Predict the 3D structure of the following.
Amino acid sequence: MIAVAEIEAAIPKLSRAELDELRRWFDDYVEEYLELSEEAAAALEKSKAEIAAGNYLTRQP
């Protein structure tokens, strides 16, 4: 198994194109690999419903 230190050492050696490819791949991997906890998923669904119903506030800088 490759250690994190080896991966960290290899990343600075990548070209810009390779780094972009790695980032896209890692983003996709993390999105598919990680799942929301039931609590987080419920909170997200509640927030979506509140926004859809117009029950939200915006904050102006």
User: Anything to note?
Assistant: Helices lie at 4-10, 16-33, 38-52. Residues 4-52 form one domain.
